[in-house]
Amino acid sequence: MPNQPTIEKCILSFSHNRAETRAAADRQSIEKAQREIAAGKSGVSHLILRAGDDEIDRLKFLFPIHGVPIMCYALANLLNSSLKEIVVVGSWEVKRVMDGYLELVGSNGKSVKFIPEDPENLSLASTLLLGRDRLSLDADEMVLFQPGDLPFLYDVEKVLHDEDIPEHNLILWLNSRQAMFSGYKEDPDAEFVRRNYHYRYLDEASGVVHDAKEPNIYPINLARVEEDIIDLLHLTRKDGKISTAILKKALTAPLRFFRLLPLLGKHASNFSSDLQRLRGEDEYQFGMHRDNFNEGASILLNTSFTSKVHDDPAFVSDVDALEDWEDFESLTRYAADRHGEEGLSRIHPAGEALTKFKLKGMPALKKELPMYKNFPAYMNRLYKDLEMGYEPFDAEGNYVKPDATDGATERAYEWYSHKASRTGVRQASA
Hints:
- The chain is an alpha/beta fold.
- Helix content is about 45%, strand content about 15%.
- The strands form 4 sheets. Strands 7-6-1-8-12 form a 5-stranded mixed sheet, sandwiched between helices. Strands 13-10-11-9-14 form a 5-stranded mixed sheet, with helices on both faces. A two-stranded parallel sheet has the order 2-3.
- The longest helix is centred in the middle third of the chain and has 26 residues, at about 255-280.
C-alpha cells in the first residue's frame, strides 16, 4: 500500500546523547578537531557535547544565536511550514523555552506537544519511538524526523511534498557540495558552510560525481523501517563510517546480504573505474553509484528506500560545533549591523517573531536558566576548555567576530537574504 502523498507530522528532537564525564567529552572534542587540523580538513569542528556530570547541561539546542536559542529558530521553521502536528522531545529546559516561545508568539495553528527525553536512553531510536507514540499516525504514514540544530532550514516544503513519498519508506536527502556550492573551486568564499565530505555519490544519469555528506533530516515511515537500522545509521553516519552500518546489518540478516552480492559485484567492477574516468585520482571513504546504492539499501533494510541531493546550504548547516555556532552568530550580527533589529527579518522569515521573543521572552529565561545568566562568560570558558585559542566575547560581553569569517559571512548573508525574500510564508508575532 502506498504512503499518504504528503508529510503532515513531525518529530522535532532537542535531545542528544551524553558522555559520562565532562573530561571525556572535552577530550573527544579536542582530539577530533586535532585530527582534522592535522589532515588539513576545511571543516574543523570542536564538537559541543553533553556530559553526565555537567552542572549546566551543555545542550547545543539551548545555545543562543544573536540572543535567541537555536531551538526557537528550528521550532519557528516548522511552525511556518504546512505541517499540522509537531512533537517536541527534549529536557525540562527545552520545555521551558518552548512554552515561553509559544505563549509569546503562538503556534500558527499547529498542534505542538512536548514529551520529555529519557535520560537513561538517549538513543535516536528511543527519541523516535517517544515521538511516534505521541503522534496520531495512520497506517503507512511518513513522518519527518528533524534534529533541532538546523536554525535556518526554513524551506522544508520540497521535503514534505516530495513526489517520492508515496512509494518509499525512507528518503535520504544527501548534502552535495557540488549542488549547494557550485562555484566553490573558483571562489572559496562561495562555500560559506565548511564541512568535510567523505562520500562519493555518482549519478549515472547526469554523469556528476557528488561529494556527499550524510543527511540531517529524515522522512521515514516508522512502521516500515526496522528500529536497529535507525541507530546504526545515526551512530555510523559521520566520518565515512556508513560501511560499518552495512556490515553490522548484513551480519544480522545473512539472506539479505546474499541478495546483495550481485550489486556488490557490480560495485567492485565498475565504481572505481567510473569515478576515475570522471574525476581522476580521488580520496574518499565510501562511494557508490546512485541506483546501486538505492537498490542495495532497499534490499538490506527490507523496505523501499531512495536517496537524492538538494541545493540548499541550510540542510547541511547544523550546529554541532563551536565553529558552527560562530558562523550563525557572525551571520546574524552582520545582518544586525546593516539593518538594526530588522536584520534578522532580512535573512529569516520568522525574524519578527524571533526578535520579539528575544526582547520580551528572554529576560525572564535569563533569570531562570543557568546557561543564560551570563552566556558570554559561559562561552568564553567553553572556548578555553576546548583549546580554541581565542574567546568569542570581550570583557563587556560584546561578540568579537573572527576575521576569518568575513568573506564567508557576507556570502551567507547574500544567500539567505535572497532566499528569505523568495520564501512566501512569514510568521508574524502573535
